[in-house]
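A student in our group prepared the protein record below, which I am reviewing. What it holds is a sequence and that sequence's fold in token form. My question to you is simply how this chain folds and whether the tokens agree. Do not assume that whoever made the record got everything right. I have pasted the whole thing underneath without changing anything:
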Amino acid sequence: MNMLNQLQMDSLLPDREYWLEQMLAISDPVLSALAGRRLKGLMPIECAEIAGASEGEKAALLADRAKYSHLEALGRLLSGMAPWLENRQLVGAEDEMRSRYAELARVAIDAGTDPESPDYMNFSDGFQPIVDAAFLAQAILRAPIELGEKLAPRVKANVIAALKQTRTRKPVFSNWLLFAATIECALLKLGENDWDPMRIDYALKQHEQWYLGDGAYGDGPDFHWDYYNSFVIQPMLVDVLAAAGDHYEEWNAMRTTIASRARRYAGVLERLIAADGTYPPIGRSLAYRFGAFQSLAQSALLDDLPGDVMPAQVRCALTAAIRRTLDMPGNFTPEGWLAIGFCGHQPNIGERYISTGSLYICTAVFLPLGLPSEHPFWSGEDMAWTSKRAWSGQPFGIDTALK
């Protein structure tokens, strides 16, 4: 159904056209199925291959993840697409396509939150729903007009009711606190008067306690070598303050510090992309693929990159990482659904909480599509990124810690 193929897009710059092609290829199976209220019937539920697990254990894991995978797919997909859906600076064919996908996204949200829909999603059974309701909430924060104001009153009421169901879930004492905070921010954006500032305040202040220095937070009391500063922590801290920071002076006072940490972390991520587009397979949730670069992509979207990191070099670095990943066969099923893997189909690298829907957080890399084509991120001439310069004998900047 990829609408990019239906429109004349000759005016697009090559990298932007490639990014759109990949984002829409990833999104089409999910949105098309939801448009027909057939996601639960069409989306395969693949779980990780757990070494030594019995057939009974495998069946139990599959049954468990099937309760959550559909909301995972919807929320995570839209959180990455949202800035493009909200982009008010597009013209011509791309804007026509954006408008059509925005309508499709609203239809998908309706299908997932309507209690009478066969695709009605799980917002209250188990602990996992608070995670993926938060990604849906983050999509609303990133597209408050297209995925908020333009929702029909009935749909908006269903979304609010669905998000509120997660208030009975106790977050894990970790990055999960930000899921509760993000949901409350979405309720605020949707016009709810009973949004809970305590959930936001607790998440902000606890993460301040977990800050470890040089732009990195612990995931809870401990530090982990993984990409969760990018998958969740830095982006949600920034988005929560953007949505609710004006409501309390002490929250507003956090903005500058949190932004400086996100900026530093974005610089680190840029340096992690090797000259050939590879990056270290460190930590858990590697099946989220290039979603590992959400924080860098968000800093580019917000025009808040480190001073020595140019938007065009970030575009080239991220394009290299996307291509290096997607050029490998096996990333998709024959029907176009994402398959578990880091680069190709590698089901053994999925943890027990990973299933098909989980994988759609990879769309977070596409956040800069929320910038207009004229922005230097897209219009700037190709530039070698830090690793490419370093490993080809060219001058490159000295890295310095955040003080």
